[in-house]
Records
---
Amino acid sequence: MKNYSNETARNSNRNSIITAFTIWIIFLSMGAFWYFKTGRRFFIFDLPYIGSSIALGILLGAVLPKRFKHYGRRVTQLLVGIYMLCILGFVMKVNMQIESFFFYALAGAIGGAIIHYLPAKLLGPAVFSRGFCGWACWTAMVLDFLPWKTPRNGRYKYLGIIRYIHFILSFILVAFLFFTLSYFPDNGTIEVLAWLSAGNVFYYSAAVLLAYLFRDNRAFCKYLCPIPVLQKITARFSVFKIKIDLSKCIDCGLCERKCPMNIRLLEYSHAGKRILSTECILCNICVEVCPKHAVDISSGFDFGFQEYINFKKRQ
Ligand code: SF4
Ligand code: SF4
Ligand code: SF4
């Protein structure tokens, strides 16, 4: 039995190493594409740096002993999150918040936000689901240091609608400024710094406050952040999703209890499905905690329309 388990772990590590290498190549190729398209040498550094950071985290997760594996993802979060927020944001004055995406989309222009949103939040989730939220978000990079990593209760069923309201209000604000005042805060200007600062002060303070109130590090992601509204459109078709091998699973429930997004993993596995939920952030926590190595990332194609979420029970 022990050898069987070790063999499974070895296979899982080998898959992770192949995934890391594939991601690295994809980001290198994207860097080359944008360089040839725009002629900007910046892209020779930017996308390869992000790809290398992700590949490094996955590699660390594969080779580190079990109790240290989670540091792989944390390393990636910090490398990518600090780079995006501090270097791209505050030093180069490129705003990648959703309002900037709306401004550039309405103007029909290609800017940092468009180049970021296409792979990370619009098209990319069709391949790697909401992996951005698990591995690269600069807000979650801080949230994941807070002490409420495992939500004690289920989710509040209807609070998630606030994410959609937030999304619509942000769009209305940008459309109003753009169409009625012809306002457009271009990257590299002091105005962008103001948007960036105001946006991040709001996001960080709201995110930490919600985490404290709900005793849940990811409460902001579940109830207030507007980004999943976009990601969830394509994430349901994601090629990479979590899968449980029922022949190894002993139904201990640990993966479900540790899932930071309250996903009912076993309901999917008992129905013979991969984890179809668009709430999955591919954080790998379920993979790392499973005592039987029954959970892994798998590739495939399915229509992920079922959302099995553990909601808070009425008192
Ligand atoms: S839901 Fe929003 S705050 Fe949470 S990880 Fe995703 S982008 Fe970041
Ligand atoms: S942690 Fe592993 S063994 Fe336990 S229920 Fe989840 S998949 Fe099954
Ligand atoms: S299902 Fe697994 S990978 Fe997805 S959010 Fe939950 S713990 Fe993370």
---
Amino acid sequence: MASASVTTTGQPQWLDAKTQSLMDRSIAREKALSTILMTYILTGLAFMLLPGTFLGVWNLIFISKLQAAQSVAPGWIQAHGHAQIFGWVATFILGIGFYSIPKLRKMQPFPLWRAWACWALWTTGVLLRWGVTIQPWHWRALLPLSAVLELAAFALFFFTIGPAHASLKNEKMAWDTWVYVVIAATAGLLLTLLLQVLETFSLALSGASPAFPHLFDQRYLVVATWGFLVPMVWGFSARWVTVFLGLRPLRSSLLALAAAANSLGVLAALFGAFALAADALLAGAICAGTALRIFEPSVKMPKVVRVHSSFPYFVRAAFVWLAIAALLGIWASRNLAGSAGILGASRHALTVGFVAAMVFGVGQRILPSFCGMRVLASPRLMFAGLALLMAGCTLRVGSEILAYQNFAAWAWKLLPVSAVVEMTAVTLFALNLAWTFLRPPVVAPSPLTQFVE
Ligand code: HEM
């Protein structure tokens, strides 16, 4: 028996019952994958807003009121950092990974319950870690449990869509360089999660509080930021940003060199060689920008339909922040007189100026179509969020160095202003995505229309 159907190009076609049922199943799966992705994204946004940014703003207001970086308990600062890196950015990455990697690798469909189970384990782990560092209730049991839950979620993700998984045609697919860079980033995430498990068990056995000791925290943060977030952004930039900005083809071997220098820097920091680490991280950042040709003029028209036309400028600005973060790292590693302000400024140049700006830019470019063929609700809100993020980051990085390093007392007054500007930026980003998800799709979700550019 045959029935009428409409293709993505709008052409009616006659399909037999078997083909029709296959199409229906693929469409149902595509819808289910989009729902999973939207759940991960909305969860990430929730972590970003309240446990992440709101707590960060609260901490910064206290620090500037008392004019001392140590005036806030380390647990509260670490809870903020954990919510931002793991609650927000990593949750986005897991969701995008479940949605896009099986398609890019043309893999056999995986059982969807695994993506839901991973979400449940990950969200519970991150929430538990955040709660128990803020309020140390039964922390000797709950802190290691949170680290084990996060590691279990990662293991489920890795064994579902990791490199060992067979492709649909059972052929060995040739991997582009960007895939290797994403694998390096995934190794960085695994190392971060393993370090967490070891440290939380050690604290539970003989520690005085759930907060990580300062020295360990500094090394662990280099692994979490430079070892996981940075190569992940480079990998996905090589896949998508080159196309979106109409850049010349990637210099693949230079990107591989960037990843190698970056990994050397991360390992050096882990073993306490901070000067070598800072040099290697700067070398990696320069190689990555050159490999991606970020600062070279576009040779094709940038793909800015349905987003704000300023998008390519913000992507380039994010790479300027990456270089600033690496340069500040070099200054901090050579400054023997104490460098809490320079290190904090370097960390936020990296996390806000580079990572958050790339998530705001590329996220608002790809997520609407991944999440059920939608269109971004407001390109103007996208521009406002990115512009405020850049302004807040400039204010923050500048005033943190001036205030914390005792160069200028008036800079303490600027810090809360920077916090409110950044908070407004992240709120606009969250509103724009949530509004986008509430709007109906422009095209019925279909496996044939999933990577429309
Ligand atoms: C949006 C506004 C933000 C505000 C107001 C804020 C505020 C703060 C403050 C006050 C600290 C304490 C140390 C210092 O003064 O440097 C801190 C640390 C930190 N922040 Fe942020 N932050 C923001 C955004 C972010 C983002 C987007 C990320 C990551 C994606 C992030 C990651 C971190 C990390 C990793 C730490 C160090 C935590 C630790 O010491 O273990 N922050 N932040």
---
Amino acid sequence: MKALALVFLFLISLNLQAETIQSFQVLKENSQMHLIAERFEVKERNKTGFLVYVLKERVAEFRKLAPQAKMLSSDINLNLKNKMALAGYHSFEQIKKMAKVLEMTYPKLAKVVPYGTSRKGLPLFAIKLSDNVEVIEDEKKVMLTSATHGDELITTEVLLALTESLLKGYDSNQRFKKILNNTEIYIILVVNPEGFTRRSRYSGGIDPNRQYPWPGHPNRRTPVPAIDSIMKFYKKIDFDGSIDFHASGKMVMFPWGYTRDLIQTADHQVFDRLTTDMAKENRYKHGPISRVIYVAKGSSADFYYGHNSGLALGIELTTSKVPRASRIPGVVKEASEMTWKYLEHFSR
Ligand SMILES: [Zn+2]
């Protein structure tokens, strides 16, 4: 019996093998920065330059562009490899079940809406939240998404907790009642199930958040079925706004990412006012993606805004992709007020 349990534990730990990602500080004087940003993940802009994440297998390639870069961490995903640290996080199977349970518990307010299958046949689904959830009403449509990068586990936990708060609080909380009575919210807890089940940022080796079209480049993409499906879904519902939750960095950002040019002035002012207000309590950095971090082509917010001028945000939560489970409630709190403010923008 004991031997069997050990084999089982071993299998679990194999299953949790995550990628090794190293972090580097690249000096702002580096003349190859634009190439680094094209090929690697620039996490944040700081006083002396940029924090960049690099997959261990690609460190040699990175080193050619940044020989002087200082390594800050030899493995930022240590928590992903620690069963204890992961104990408080939900698996994809559990997430699917919880969506069903929410639908059964709140039949008037929550409904599971499938919108496709992933590359390996995993289900893609949203949970629609609204009063009279069975019908499409003349209300603003908002999409909230998490786990576009499958290793950013905290994003799914936060979005799930916010979803539960809205539903549980509907009868007693006037604020939530107003939000659900006046908007149709579609929650997508796992955008990239392949990445999520493997605890990987990627889908089939491709960064999903670099595969959306951007102005002038409608086709420069490698197809990722999960991303194709969510783009189709976005167009079909014709969303008025979206938040794509990522981790980490404590930032609330809006288009453009692909260029340092600003979007048109009237829109910029709306985004700027809203994100300034959203960041009031949690003190997140805010502004256009390209200016808060660095130019990044192919991110979701550029596509959503470019498609129909939707109020598309990208949020980088907290300071880690997978904080210890005991820290989850704190991150939920950090994300709550700004999310309610965002939703209230559509329900006034
Ligand atoms: Zn991300």
---
Amino acid sequence: MKQRILKIVCIGAGYVGGPTMAVIADRCPDISVTVIDLNAARIAAWNSDALPVYEPGLAEIVRRTRGRNLRFISQTEGAAAIAQADAVFISVNTPTKTQGEGAGKASDLSYVESCARYIAEHATGPTIVIEKSTMPVRAADTIKRILSSGKNGGSFHVLSNPEFLAEGTAIRDLEKPDRVLIGGENPTAIEALAAVYRHWVPEAAILRTGLWSAELSKLAANAFLAQRVSSINAISALCEATEADVDEVAGVCGADTRIGPKFLKASIGFGGSCFKKDLLSLIYLCEFYQLSGPAAYWQGVLDINEWQKRRIAAMAAEHAKLGGGVVAILGLAFKKNTNDFRESPAIDICNQLLASGVRLRLQDERVDAKDFAAHIVDQRKVGVEFFADVAPAADGADALLILTEWDCYATIDWPALFSSCGKNPAIFDGRAIIDRRAAISAGFKVYSVGKG
Ligand SMILES: NC(=O)c1ccc[n+]([C@@H]2O[C@H](COP(=O)([O-])OP(=O)(O)OC[C@H]3O[C@@H](n4cnc5c(N)ncnc54)[C@H](O)[C@@H]3O)[C@@H](O)[C@H]2O)c1
């Protein structure tokens, strides 16, 4: 096997593949990086000025690397690139299965498996195949099996190199990762990949483990993060009932170095494409190995998240229906600084509001509201309007429901907005980011999550 990786191919030009490969190309000018995807429109967007992924700092990196040592090409042009690659990253989606064994919980590995078949068909080897997608533990067995059935005799080593970036801070996370994790069985392959990261990541932050530990560590890390959100959200409801303040409680708990301050912000709940599906995958694995106690524990983390969304939506609906039944939704993205609304809490909350007969006025800083509305499961377009700015969205609204912590919502001029709202307007601050005093003195009723 080659000791040095000089040619990389990444299959999957999504929220992980695109930014990760852009940073590798930026930090490793000696390595040529090719990103391929089935989705031709996505590849075209990566080759344009309107990138398909919004992340602070990403556009600048793509601008200086694209055409130098970074290129985006369609799957049909990918075979030659795979044949020459020293390493191929698999960075495709691993959603929850919707049918068959484990439907509703287990990860759907069909996209990963089709990548493995594509690599087996075109690689001339020796090739390092790297799981960048989040996989259930022992998924590498399946990949190895598919690769070894290839007809052209390429030789392969499989590594697990799960990605820990968070959307919204992807570039910072990639440039200064807390850790890079490489799991594998072949020391030469592990060190070849470590050498790529050593271009900019300190050696001490490059962790090596066995394959199965690496696969499981990614699921465990996301489960721990989701668990913290559910823990503080469970406390937020108790704060509201007892007139305690969840930010004060979080500050005190987080000052304990054993707990730490991060990920203790009460909210309408976690969203995004990963936490729920990775928790479900973990629950499925526990059940598969007949570990019912651990399965129930992680299910509880998901249950609190659903409960938190439901109770806040119910409060907003109840208030809106006292007036004209109009709710302005401020924020559709699952968090700030991203245009991603996959599994956004806003989806379930909007569905619940529509089901309770409320009309919605949607606004977000980066998400196209019409695009979002197409994903509202309810599909009842009646009673949904879209706005580019906050003021027109709030016009005539009985309740303003803040669902994303975009900075611009924290600095809204409440007195200026008050007169255009409905008769008895309330703000439901699902992120606890606004200046409550300013909003109350402007005339609004104010509910902030976790504030008594
Ligand atoms: N989004 C995140 O914040 C994040 C963070 C860490 C890990 N992950 C994991 O990374 C993986 C990818 O996530 P994402 O958010 O980038 O997904 P995504 O849906 O944004 O991108 C996946 C891309 O893969 C392409 N694709 C699917 N099958 C293909 C195939 N056979 N050949 C070529 N292209 C194919 C799709 O067209 C799509 O563009 C998932 O396993 C996810 O759990 C995601």
